Amino acid sequence: MSIKVDNLTKAYGSQLAVDGISFSLLPGEIVGFLGPNGAGKSTTMKILTGYLTPTSGSARVADFDVMSQSLSARRAIGYLPEHNPLYLDMYVKEFLLFSGKLYGIKGDKLKARVDEMVSLCGLEVEKKKKIGQLSKGYRQRVGLAQSFLHDPSVLILDEPTTGLDPNQIQEIRELIRTAGNNKTVLFSTHIMQEVEALCDRVIIINKGKVVNDSTLDNLRQTGHTLEETFRELTR
Ligand SMILES: Nc1ncnc2c1ncn2[C@@H]1O[C@H](COP(=O)(O)OP(=O)(O)OP(=O)(O)O)[C@@H](O)[C@H]1O
Predict the structure, then answer these.
(1) Ligand 1 pocket test target in 9, 15, 83 with most atoms within 8 Å of CB
(2) SS3 220
(3) Can you state the percent helix, strand and coil of the chain, rounding each to 5?
(4) Nearest in space to 48 (alpha carbons), one of 30, 28, 25
């Protein structure tokens, strides 16, 4: 399994944000992670990527336990957090070179990898700008380039297309499809068409619990659209 979550819970004080969820992703699967605002998607992703510790339960990424083998798990993960925090005063290439060094990539290999990511993510024309001067869509590309740099086997992308115009959404989607080829991808979104365009499978959570985990083919056979299913299960 590329991702395996077992009976995971996370409490913030008395609030159970994640309430005993279990799911797994096979290598190469692209899975949409849906749920209404506050359902627990980001919290789950933060646990998978080692930013938060769970209250109970376990999670494994690339067969590494995210708690006891955190470093190995994190090496296998490319993570785009919600709101995509970046160093706005850094130049695009400077930031990617800096990020690559943090991943332990060095010398000519680092330069080649950064150039490859600049090209893959369509950053060629903007690469000499400061990140703070970029549009939201281009900042998103920088965040994605950073998450792909160390060639991780698992991508965890928290709302990668939120706030982008329709053209940018299409381009970022294409990028996820290209870069996600042969990778396991778990991404959250509120855009149903995005899931239909990109995913093999969808996991819907509501109030911290998994309320649906099925392939899109199976969902279609129910005769309901994804949106209808979502609304029915998350009311
Ligand atoms: N640091 C925190 N302290 C206290 N409560 C938190 C914290 N982070 C998240 N929560 C709460 O946990 C619940 C789940 O939040 P989370 O961000 O995981 O939801 P989400 O599904 O990602 O939502 P959205 O779609 O709005 O991004 C929410 O009620 C939220 O207010």
Answers:
(1) 15
(2) helix
(3) 40, 25, 35
(4) 25
Q: What is the pLDDT of residues 107-135, one digit of tens each?
A: 999 999 999 999 989 899 998 999 999 99
| Distance in Å, CA 64 to ligand 1 centroid | 25
Report the alpha-carbon distance of residue 124 to residue 93 in Å, rounded: 10
Q: Which pLDDT belongs to residue 83?
A: 87
Query: What is the rounded average pLDDT of the residues 22-32?
Result: 96
Looking from the CA of residue 159, the nearest atom of ligand 1 is 27
ipTM over 0.95: yes
Domain ranges (residues) in the chain = 1-76+152-235, 84-151
- Report whether pLDDT(1) > 90: no
Residue 174 in contact with residue 181, Cβ under 8 Å?
A: no
pLDDT digits (tens, 9 = 90+) for 33-45: 999 999 999 999 9
**CATH class of domain segment(s) 1-76+152-235:** alpha beta
Q: By alpha-carbon position, which residue is closest to atom 5 of ligand 1?
A: 12
